């Protein structure tokens, strides 16, 4: 059985004393075991990262961006291999895994151009003979704690910017699909990144707690569920660290009567059931406004029944299994609870086994489910199910739809399907959500913008990547300079300095 080890100081590390199983969710079989990091493992990684920071933080911007260019090229060349590693442990289709690599690579591309983002400003002659300029310095050793659902992309939201700005990094990936992290570590090494700049410590709560408490870690980036985001934010800020903590979601797609129902239904279906609904930007609620409802539900039901479910490595499959047996059982229970609370189960995905794949009999599959007449009091509306369940809520007006979304505790993503510019403008100005799509169901921003929700979807105040990422991983220095001519020495005054 393969043992997946940490990556510390440029090589695999860690003893196999405590391990956790890593499953192939399509078959339900254990495919490897991952070592569970301890406080000693975290300390070893931080010690190597701190030593590497001494030289890496003094490297030139050109050297750092050249490493990023080489790393980007290796991500292109190894996309297929990495996609298959992700698919085998996560269960998503290989095509979908390629998509997350491409979106993560875009952050590397942003990091290749950091010379521009790191330019400071200069003010000439703010006082006689005095200039002011500013520049930004890296923080030191920073850590990333990431979820299972994007084992390549979410860490890539963090480490390229942290490293290109001169920090060194300790990644604690999800213990459920840990192999992508080690593969990426190998690519960095081949790209010329010095040993110790990028490190991986596997594990669960014990490793996370050691990161949150370690005095050598300056900042923590977290992405995962809201309760853990709140915990991480609280513990790390009280330990004096900078924290960005992204949480869970319940994303609404609103369909107005003037929208093309087939276009909306096609995109909402893909947004709801792609990656088996295990995306923080998955569409989990369709809000049908007025007369849009019946046609929309009919089109959604037809499409939900057509989704091709199977193992992620098989060409043509559109949706794979869930990550664990527990996740599958939780999602199937939620469909039953919704029916008991008065929702109409239009399409029931429970108990699905992929056709023609006897090897998947014990896999963690459930099919797409579509619930109609869901109300905000029902569990299926209130909870983040993180599975292939789409709930339809019917309302009378756009303003009612906006009020519904604003009353929801989450505020990650949302979308509006309409042909009206006025409605789109009203929606985007009033809705209390961080990322908004207009006729775009999954509005994940490009890497040169920042990614982050509002309310319980982002704890604290810092979104990730783009300009906010650069700000998060650096701190400014402002320098006030005077170079007096030897002949003209101004007298030093004791009053608080003002410009004149
Ligand atoms: P999770 O919160 O269970 O785990 C995230 C990380 O925290 C993992 O590395 C895990 O090992 C660690 N962890 C788990 N429980 C912990 C605990 N009690 N104490 C300390 N550390 C702990 O999340 P998940 O199930 O891996 O991922 C799914 C969740 O992530 C969903 O809620 C989803 O919405 C969210 N997510 C959010 C975004 C976003 O951008 N807002 C992106 C991706 C995923």
UniProtKB/TrEMBL annotation:
Its EC number is 1.2.1.27. It holds the Pfam family Aldedh. The keyword Cell cycle does not apply. Residues 16-479 form the Aldehyde dehydrogenase domain. Keywords: NAD, Oxidoreductase. InterPro entries: Ald_DH/histidinol_DH, Ald_DH_C, Ald_DH_CS_CYS, Ald_DH_N, Aldehyde_DH_dom, MeMal-semiAld_DH. It comes from the Bacteria. The keyword NAD applies. SUPFAM superfamilies: ALDH-like. This is methylmalonate-semialdehyde dehydrogenase (CoA acylating). It comes from Streptomyces virens.
């Amino acid at each position: 059985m393969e043992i997946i080890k940490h990556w510390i100081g440029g090589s695999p590390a860690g003893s196999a004393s405590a391990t956790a199983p890593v499953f192939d969710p399509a078959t339900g079989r254990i495919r490897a075991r991952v070592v569970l990091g301890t406080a000693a493992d975290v300390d070893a990684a931080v010690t190597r990262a701190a030593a590497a920071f001494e030289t890496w933080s003094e490297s030139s911007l050109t050297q750092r961006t050249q490493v990023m260019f080489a790393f980007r090229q290796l991500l292109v060349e190894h996309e297929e291999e990495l996609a298959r590693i992700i698919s085998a442990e996560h269960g998503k289709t290989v095509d979908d895994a390629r998509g997350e690599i491409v979106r993560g690579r875009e952050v590397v591309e942003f990091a290749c151009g950091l010379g521009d983002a790191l330019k400071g400003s200069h003010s000439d002659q703010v006082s006689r003979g005095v200039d002011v300029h500013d520049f930004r310095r890296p923080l030191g050793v920073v850590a990333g704690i990431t979820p299972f659902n994007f084992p390549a992309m979410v860490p890539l939201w963090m480490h390229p910017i942290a490293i290109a700005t001169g920090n060194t990094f300790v990644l604690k990936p999800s213990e459920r699909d840990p192999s992508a992290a080690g593969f990426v570590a190998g690519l960095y090494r081949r790209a010329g990144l010095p040993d110790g700049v990028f490190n991986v410590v596997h594990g669960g709560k014990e490793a996370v707690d050691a990161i949150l408490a370690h005095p050598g870690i300056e900042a923590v980036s977290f992405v995962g569920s809201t309760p853990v985001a709140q915990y991480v934010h609280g513990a790390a800020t009280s330990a004096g660290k900078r924290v960005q903590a992204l949480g869970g979601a319940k994303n609404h797609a609103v369909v107005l009567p003037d929208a093309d129902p087939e276009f909306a239904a096609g995109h909402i279906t893909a947004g709801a059931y792609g990656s088996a609904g295990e995306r923080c930007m998955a569409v989990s609620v369709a809000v049908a406004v007025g007369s849009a409802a019946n046609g929309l539900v009919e089109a959604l039901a037809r499409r939900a029944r057509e989704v091709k479910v199977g193992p992620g490595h098989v060409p043509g499959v559109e949706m794979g299994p869930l990550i664990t047996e527990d996740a599958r059982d939780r999602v199937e229970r939620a469909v039953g609870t919704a029916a008991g609370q008065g929702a109409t189960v239009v399409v029931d995905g429970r108990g699905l086994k992929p056709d023609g794949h006897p090897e998947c009999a014990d896999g963690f599959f459930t099919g797409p489910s579509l619930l109609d007449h869901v109300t905000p009091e029902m569990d299926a509306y209130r909870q983040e199910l993180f599975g292939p369940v789409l709930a339809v809520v019917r309302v009378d007006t756009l303003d009612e739809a906006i009020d519904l979304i604003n009353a929801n505790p989450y505020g990650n993503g949302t979308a509006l399907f309409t042909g009206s510019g006025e409605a789109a403008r009203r929606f985007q100005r009033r809705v209390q959500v961080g990322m908004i799509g207009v006729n775009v169901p999954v509005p994940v921003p490009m890497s040169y913008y920042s990614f982050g929700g509002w309310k319980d979807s982002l704890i604290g105040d810092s979104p990730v990547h783009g300009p906010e990422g650069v700000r998060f991983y650096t701190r400014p220095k402002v320098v006030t300079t005077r170079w007096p001519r030897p002949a003209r020495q101004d007298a030093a005054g004791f009053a608080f300095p003002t410009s004149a």
